[in-house]
């Protein structure tokens, strides 16, 4: 779990806010399948006694599937459905969607930013006169998913209330250390070396070249 989730709310980095549709990270079918596999592996790794699947319950996994396969645009990477729309696809209630998204972010499977719009409104001022003001309205969140591949886009840090740091999603890649270089001469068969030396000496004797 990211360290920032353990901080009091007033000490956490503020959630990024963006106007419009926000940016997206394109994901093909293989990338989405990797994310689902990672989620299941995360569950297996963090499963506690008494948990049927792990910290990511069936409802949470269904919210993830709905986001990836029904709302995420593979080409543009945009994904900003309302909670109500997600709840319909995942067949759960709105509160479950809220908890699921929080759990998925804690697992560093996704992150999100606040989308906001600016609109003009007519209202009365303190003196009762009609004036035109700008009002900032918050709309649905924009979700960004992280492909488990180390080289994938979106693996860098994000300006989020719960920044990724090093992914739980940082699926550890076991790298085999390169074998230490060895002295090939000492590893060669001594008999072969002796035979080669004898051959060289014979050739040198035939051509009248002194061997040192």
Runs with pLDDT <50, length 5+? 157-186
Instruction: Please estimate the helix content.
Output: 25-40%
Give the helix/strand class: alpha+beta
Question: Order of SSEs, N→C?
Answer: EHHHHEEEHH
The averaged pLDDT comes out at 75
Continuous helix count: 6
The end-to-end span amounts to 68 Å
- Rg over CA atoms, rounded to whole Å, is 30 Å
Shape: elongated
Oligomerization category of the chains in this entry? single chain
Let me know the largest β-sheet: 4 strands, mixed
Binned strand content: 5-15%
* DSSP strand count: 4
Q: What is the domain total for the residues?
A: 2
Question: What brief labels describe this structure?
Answer:
212 residues, alpha+beta, 6 helices, 35% helix
In terms of topology, how is this protein built?
Elements: E1 17-19, H1 29-46, H2 58-71, H3 83-90, H4 94-106, E2 110-124, E3 130-138, E4 142-145, H5 184-187, H6 190-207
Helix pairs in contact: 2-3, 2-4, 3-4
Structure, explained:
- The chain is an alpha+beta fold.
- The chain has two domains: 3-145, no CATH class; 182-212.
- The protein has six helices and four strands; from the N terminus they run E-H-H-H-H-E-E-E-H-H.
- Strands 1, 2, 3 and 4 form a four-stranded mixed beta sheet that branches.
- Helix 2 crosses helix 3.
